[in-house]
Every structure is written in C-alpha cells, then in structure tokens.
Specification:
By secondary structure, this protein is an all-alpha fold. It contains three helices and no strands.
Length: 111
C-alpha cells in the first residue's frame, strides 16, 4: 500500500521520470548491489533527463520549424565559405555570433 501511495504522490508532483525509474529499481534490474546514494542518483538523473526531453520537445513544437534539419545534413561539396571544422566542435553558448575577431589588448597601468 505504501508503494502505491508513493507512486501516486510522484505522479501528482509530475515526477514521472522518477516514478518510472523507481518502478524499474523495485522490479529488480540489478540495482540491489548499489548504495543508497547511487540509487537516488539514478532516480534524480532519470527525472532530470525526462524533464529536459519534455522541455526540448515543447520548445521544438513552439518554434514551428518548417523542416527537420541536422548539422549532419550540411553539404560541403560546394564552395560557400563554410568552415568545415566548425560543426565538429561543440558550440559555446557564451560565444558571440559571427566571425571571431582578435581584440587588441588595452591594458593600462603598471605591467
């Protein structure tokens, strides 16, 4: 009875990923030899992943993109001035858009 109440509370709190991971652990898929902290870590990771997936799905739906595209679909056979190395590097969210320009140093005061 306690397990059903726990699952109901998790569902009410919209923690569906946590509930699914807990059910998997209770069904005994090799989680018995893990420590308490590791098991909690798996539960939290599953919930985090589920939330991120829902967030991404919601954003993609609200973006109303006309076509499905992926960076792998870029055709580099034609010369258009595209940097073929740039897509293979991870994107830096803090980087400014556009070409990278070197800035002169503007130090003042004693060196």
């Amino acid at each position: 009875m306690l397990t059903e109440q726990t699952f109901q509370k998790l569902t009410d709190m919209k923690m569906h990923g946590f509930a699914l991971a807990l059910k998997e652990q209770l069904d005994g898929h090799g989680y018995d030899e893990l420590s308490f902290e590791e098991r909690i870590g798996f539960l939290v990771d599953r919930e985090w992943t589920e939330r991120e997936a829902r967030r991404l799905t919601r954003r993609l739906q609200s973006a109303k993109l006309r076509e499905q595209a992926a960076i792998e679909d870029i055709d580099f056979r034609y010369r258009r001035g595209l940097d073929t190395e740039r897509p293979s590097r991870p994107l830096d969210p803090n980087a400014e858009a556009g070409p990278i320009r070197s800035q002169p140093s503007t130090r003042r005061g004693p060196a």
